[in-house]
Design a protein that fits this description.
106 residues, four-stranded antiparallel sheet, 0% helix, PLXDC, transmembrane, transmembrane helix
């Protein structure tokens, strides 16, 4: 088709299961549009502890490098290098909301 959708159902914050579950999705359209849909957001995103559960919402172009970890030979350390970032205002994310990114004509 024309769209690829990934949905996360009933996601709980570790150690904060009593807050309720989150359900949200990302839709990538063949036209270049990207839509983030938020079905269930049980608490305002700004009330989520940034130290325990850092929240990032938006788009970025980046790449990831896996390097061997010096401490544990079998594991790898993930490093993400970002070029640009467009962040959403997390205070505006709520249940039954959506954000649409449309590509420039170029």
């Amino acid at each position: 088709g024309t769209v690829f959708v990934v949905q996360w159902d009933k996601v709980y914050l570790q150690g904060k299961e009593d807050m309720g579950s989150f359900t949200f999705q990302a839709a990538l359209h063949s036209s270049g549009r990207i839509v983030f849909g938020y079905k269930e957001i049980p608490v305002p995103v700004l009330q989520i502890s940034a130290s325990q559960h850092p929240v990032k919402a938006g788009l970025s172009d980046a790449f990831m490098v896996l390097n061997p970890s010096p401490d544990v030979p079998e594991s790898r350390r993930r490093t993400i290098y970002e070029y640009h970032r467009v962040e959403l205002d997390t205070s505006r994310i709520s249940s039954l909301s959506a954000v649409e990114f449309t590509p420039l004509p170029s």
